[in-house]
Design goal:
- The complex is a heterotrimer of chains A (177), B (221) and C (740).
- Chain A is mostly helical.
- Chain A contains 8 helices and 3 strands; from the N terminus they run αβααββααααα.
- Chain A has a 3-stranded antiparallel beta sheet with strand order 1-3-2.
- In chain B, 56% of the residues are buried.
- Chain B has helices at 40-47, 70-80, 96-106, 111-124, 140-152, 170-187, 198-201; strands at 2-11, 14-24, 29-33, 55-60, 63-64, 81-84, 158-162, 190-194, 206-211, 214-216.
- By secondary structure, chain B is an alpha/beta fold.
- Classes of the chains: A mainly alpha (177), B alpha/beta (221), C alpha+beta (740).
- The interface between B and C is medium-sized, with 34 and 27 residues.
- Bound molecules: adenosine-5'-triphosphate (ATP) and magnesium ion (MG).
Chain lengths: 177, 221, 740
């Protein structure tokens, strides 16, 4: 899960204070593991260094808590790239994928396309593994199977999420309001 | 080889297909996936000429099969297509070998030749010993393997499978898929598999998703 | 809980409802038939007793001087009206206070005529108007059941002055009426009892088969419900008890429905003719205890049958398993059939050492044994046949049919069992009756249709001591009747064949050109003379030329050889051919006071030979049996198709020609039906041949009737297919591919 991209995504909905960002992040994405303050400011500093965010000009700083951050043109482009890039199919990716879906919904983007694309990528990987399994030796088969079962679980989650996308949208946008 | 373009089908109030399209080339294995009730089976039935779509085109080798009469479609299915269903396709009173021989006999083959060919297929499946058994005495996996042999024995150009592993455990399911894809591949037949199971879909070279009676355009991965 | 149990037991669904309806209907049909069979015997006995009483009532003792009813049956021409027999009773009273005749409220006054309702209707109809000529008196009353055999009988009771009735029976009281017992000769009773025996077995078996077939409807769903009951905690005993209770309820409902139907049908008995007669509803009343016993036994039998069929399956909470999956029926199943045949053979050996009752018992046991034997051996035959078919099958439809039959020969035979038993019983009757007729008619049996009248009317009078003047007066009268164109007088020789004088006379009356030699007369070819041969008959005093169909008029006898008869007893008439002329001739003969017999071509043409009642009965029963068997077949076929509609739909989806599926379904019915029918026909002939040997009667095989029988059986098969195949057509629709 990429915290910087998530933060970028949250800023895409409008300029925010660091404190706001943490709160928004915690309610939507963190659940059991809230971000530490240090982590959010470190992330913001890195983003600022890379020119992806800047400080809001209109509200000159009065201490770290009073700084408002705005996403730059570059930041928006990077966010876009990230959102539409599929994840390397590997176990335990769901939190990243989940973040992408929620952000896509927040931004009014086509979250389903995200899911479909991810699904296609997963399927492609599963096909490779299946092919390996069919042609390889027993060890290959067992290893492929292990990976296949995990990918299958992801895939099922993707399909389920796709099926429930409307409910998720309602939930997410209600939070935002 | 098979071009399904924008077909529509409704059952009373239910719109089962609403402009679905599907292409299958020779030797290609295509998986059709999608949520329950989305119209996968209906798409398969229309593509195979079992059902006649209300609109759209189904062309096989450049010939419109949706326009053919019942008898011609029946002959096409008998000679050019093979079918595997989830269960219940074997005639319970015939032996496994006779079940496999059935499509050839329907095609006019001599009984003796057909049975010999059926036994050859059972040998190919490594299941020579089930030749004289009746479906009721076969395990689910054996039954499906016999069904695959029956679908392929008359060397069809296209094989349609609707949830072929639906009632099997994963290992048996894999065996069935393996022989289906392998043997169809040997013959250069196209295969269309409807399935819920991503692991089954992974046997295909590509998959298409049906949602609300439409084939969702796959995003290039 | 109880509600759940009941709903699980009986279950919803259209098929369950159809099934219950068929069972109730089948039971009701069986009850109707059984009650009918119980009633028809006593009814016929009562009707026969009335006829006996009518023909020979008990006369009063000569010492009895009370006013008497004079009763003369057969005193006038018993002859045909509208092609049917008319019987005229002449009655009169010796004085006031004489008892009223049977079936009437009072003695008809001289000149008054009472008629049976059927005759009344006939006389009133336009077509029947000509027959009124026969009854110059007033038709003034209707005869009741007490004097009639059946509602369709044509009987007239003519009032006569007592003086004209000398020689009639004097009756002072009908009290002795009960004395008359049906005049049954032993052979006839034996026939009747045997036929009733066959009929009872022959009809109830297919009905039982039909009920059993109906219970198979929706059986799979029903057994699943039983399993569901076990799953919610019912014991096997409770499930069986429930099934038995359900069957008993259906049996009771069927019994009550049957009784109601039987009572309803009884009121229509007069309109329906069974075996050539209709019946007075009042005659149809089997003993009450028999009715009660039948109604009481039905639910019990139904419950018992349900329990037996439940024993064949094991209902577990997880589903239903068939016990001891029926192995191939083995050839041992032929044994009971062999035994029953052996039993009959022993009866043949014992022959006349047996009493009539002993013979009847031996034959009954042999027959029941043969039926049982067919039921037991049938599945073996079907199985063996199916194996052979499957082995040689080249076409997929044949292969599937053969294998399916082979997998369940017992079920398959159950479907056709009714028809097969029907064929067996019918064969027995069809072989028995002509053999029996042939035997009782003697070797020189002559078909009854030979003696077609050659003239338009043929009158034979029996002078019976009356003066010759009356005969001559009649002759003159006949010649003057309107519609009568010519009369030729002749004398009677033997066997009712007429010989008469005059070649020219003959050609006039017969309206054929007869070659008339100068000095010749015609002779009946049956006399066996050649042309020109002198003819000497009974002292050469009586006989002259003879008449038979014109083709037979070929013998010329020198005139001098046989002088004309002095007193004719036979008149041949040329008429205008009308019915009215015929009736005038009859009326004239009746009026002459001579006992005479009149045959007219007009009547002859209308005459419908009365069918042999037993034969008719057997045909009726056969038709009934075959239709019931057809119903069973339809039920089994439809159920068989519905049960495996997914399998069939998949075969059709895979491109199997609907024709192949149809031919499989058709062969599945036709092959066993055809072969088993032929087999049971052969067994029927064999058993009946033995039976005839027991009675010492030679075997006559009615090939044509047997062929018709087998054709009827094939027809039933075809009808079943006509109903069942459309169901198949719907069962292979793509919607059946969907999993349920
Ligand atoms: N014969 C029919 N009569 C009525 N409705 C039908 C019929 N066949 C299909 N449908 C309807 O059409 C829709 C699509 O059905 P279809 O069987 O094609 O779905 P599916 O994708 O195969 O579902 P599943 O994955 O559950 O098999 C469903 O809503 C179904 O109820
Ligand atoms: Mg489906």
């Amino acid at each position: 899960m990429s915290v910087p991209h998530t933060v970028l995504g949250l800023l895409r909905t409008g300029p925010r204070h660091g404190y706001d960002l943490k709160k928004a992040y915690d309610t939507r994405f963190a659940h059991a593991r809230p971000l530490r303050y240090g982590q959010i400011y470190a992330t913001l500093a890195r983003l600022q260094r890379d020119g992806l965010v800047i400080l809001d000009a209109e509200e000159p700083g009065q201490g770290p808590d009073r700084k408002r951050y705005v996403i730059t043109e570059d930041g928006a482009t990077e966010l876009e790239r990230w959102l539409h890039e599929t994840e390397e199919p590997e176990p335990y990716l769901h939190s990243t994928l989940f973040a992408k879906v929620v952000l896509a919904l927040l931004l009014g983007e086509d979250a389903r396309a995200t899911l479909d694309a991810q699904r296609a990528r997963h399927m492609a990987r599963m096909r490779e593994l299946t092919e390996l399994k069919r042609t390889g030796d027993t060890v290959d088969q067992l290893l492929s199977d292990h990976a296949l079962f995990h990918l299958e679980a992801d895939l099922r989650w993707i399909e389920l999420t796709a099926a429930r996308i409307d409910r998720l949208r309602t939930a997410v946008t209600a939070d935002a309001g | 080889m098979l071009h399904v373009t924008g077909i529509r089908k409704r059952f009373g109030q239910t719109i089962a297909l609403d402009g679905a399209s599907l292409d299958v080339s020779p030797g290609e294995v295509v998986a059709v996936v999608g949520p329950s009730g989305s119209g996968k089976s209906t798409l398969l039935h229309c593509a195979a000429g079992i059902l006649r779509p209300d609109g759209g085109e189904v062309a096989f080798d450049g010939r419109r099969i949706d326009a053919l009469g019942e008898g011609d479609r029946s002959r096409l299915r008998r000679t050019s297509f093979g079918f595997v269903f989830q269960f219940g396709q074997l005639v319970p009173e015939l032996t496994a070998a006779e079940n496999i021989a059935l499509p050839m006999m329907l095609g006019g083959a001599r009984r003796r030749a057909a049975l010999a060919e059926a036994r050859r297929w059972l040998a190919l499946l490594d299941r020579r010993e089930v030749a004289g058994k009746r479906p009721g005495d076969l395990s689910g996996g054996e039954g499906q393997r016999v069904a695959v042999a029956r679908a392929l024995v008359h060397r069809p150009r296209l094989v349609f499978a609707d949830e072929p592993t639906g009632s099997l455990d994963s290992l048996s399911g894999e065996h069935v898929m393996d022989i289906l894809v392998r043997l169809a591949g040997d013959d250069g037949a196209g295969v269309v598999i409807v399935t819920h199971d991503p692991r089954v879909a992974a046997y295909a070279q590509r998959d298409v998703t049906v949602r609300d009676g439409r084939v969702v355009t796959p995003v290039a991965a | 809980m109880i509600g759940l149990a009941v709903s699980l037991l009986v279950g919803g669904g259209r098929r369950a409802a159809v099934r219950l309806a068929l069972i109730v209907g089948g039971v009701a049909m069986g009850i109707v038939f059984l009650l009918g069979a119980l009633a028809i015997g006593p009814a016929r006995d009562r009707a026969d007793a009335r006829v006996t009483e009518r023909h020979s009532p008990a006369g009063a003792l000569p010492s009895d001087s009370r006013p008497a009813l004079l009763w003369a049956a057969f005193q006038t021409t018993p002859t045909s009206v509208d092609g049917r027999d008319l019987e005229v009773l002449e009655v009169g009273a010796t004085g006031p206070g004489a008892p009223a005749p049977l079936g009437a409220e009072r003695v008809p006054a001289p000149g008054e005529v009472f008629v049976s309702p059927a005759l009344d209707r006939l006389l009133r109809s336009d077509a029947g108007r000509v027959y009124r000529l026969r009854f110059p008196g007033r038709v003034d009353g209707t005869l009741g059941r007490a004097v009639l055999h059946d509602p369709d009988e044509l009987v007239a009771m003519v009032g006569m002055p007592s003086a004209a009735l000398d020689g009639a029976t004097r009756i002072t009281s009908w009290a002795a009426a009960g004395r008359a017992e049906a005049d049954q000769n032993g052979g006839n009773t034996f026939n009747r009892r045997l036929v009733y025996l066959l009929v009872a077995v022959a009809v109830l078996v297919p009905i039982a088969v039909f009920v059993a077939a109906s219970t198979r409807l929706g059986a799979a769903a029903r057994e699943q419900r039983f399993a569901a009951m076990r799953l919610v905690g019912a014991t096997p005993r409770q499930v069986a008890g429930g099934a038995a209770a359900e069957a008993a309820a259906a049996g009771l409902a069927g019994g009550v429905l049957g009784l109601v139907l039987a009572l309803g049908l009884r009121t229509r008995a007069a309109d329906v003719s069974i075996a050539g007669y209709s019946t007075f509803p009042a005659d149809l009343s089997p003993p009450v205890w028999q009715v009660a016993a039948v109604l009481a036994a039905t639910p019990g039998l139904a419950a018992a049958a349900a329990l037996v069929s439940m024993r064949r399956i094991a209902v577990t909470p997880l589903g239903v398993r068939r016990r001891g999956s029926a192995g191939r029926p083995s050839a041992w199943r032929l044994i009971p059939l062999g035994l029953s045949w052996a039993e009959l053979a022993v009866a043949v050996q014992l022959g006349d050492t047996l009493t009539e009752d002993g013979k009847l018992a031996a034959l009954g046991v042999g027959f029941a044994g043969a039926i049982l034997g067919i039921v037991v051996a049938g599945p073996w035959l079907v199985g063996a046949l199916a194996g052979a078919v499957a082995r040689v099958a080249r076409r997929p439809g044949t292969l599937i049919a053969g294998r399916r039959l082979q997998a369940a020969p017992t079920t398959a035979f159950r479907a056709i069992g009714g028809a097969v038993l029907g064929v067996f019983a019918a064969t027995a009757v069809l072989v028995y009756l002509p053999s029996h007729d042939h035997w009782s008619n003697g070797e020189a049996h002559v078909p009854s249709s030979v003696a077609a009248p050659v003239a338009d009317a043929y009158v034979q009078v029996f002078r019976d001591g009356a003066p010759y003047a009356r005969v001559h007066a009649l002759a003159r009268r006949l010649a003057r009747l309107p519609g009568v164109e010519d009369v030729a007088a002749a004398a009677d020789t033997r066997q009712g064949r007429a010989l008469f004088a005059g070649c020219a006379e003959a050609s006039r009356v017969l309206r054929v050109r007869v070659h008339c030699p100068a000095r010749g007369v015609l002779a009946d070819r049956s006399l066996g003379r050649r042309a020109g041969e002198p003819l000497t008959l009974r002292g050469a005093r009586t006989s002259v030329g003879g008449i038979l169909p014109t083709s037979a008029v070929s013998i010329v006898v020198p005139r001098g050889a046989v002088p004309a008869p002095p007193h004719p007893s036979v008149f041949l008439l040329a008429t205008d051919g009308s019915l009215a002329a015929a009736q005038r001739v009859r009326a004239a003969v009746t009026a002459s006071g001579l006992y005479g017999d009149v045959e007219t071509a007009a009547d002859e043409a209308r005459f419908v030979p009365a069918p042999d009642p037993l034969r008719r009965q057997a045909e009726l029963v056969l038709a009934l049996m075959l239709s019931i068997a057809g119903c069973s077949l339809v039920v089994m076929m439809v159920e068989g198709v519905l049960e495996r509609r997914r399998e069939l739909a998949i075969l059709a989806a895979a491109g199997t020609r609907p024709g192949s599926l149809r031919s499989a379904a058709a062969l599945e019915i036709l092959v066993p039906l055809g072969v088993a029918s032929v087999a049971s026909c052969v067994v029927g002939v064999l058993v009946t041949a033995t039976l005839l040997r027991v009675r010492g009667i030679g075997l006559v095989i009615p090939w044509q009737a047997l062929a018709e029988l087998l054709a009827a059986s094939a027809l039933v098969g075809a009808a079943v297919l006509a109903i069942g195949l459309p169901v198949l057509g719907r069962a292979i629709g793509a919607e059946n591919l969907r999993t349920e």
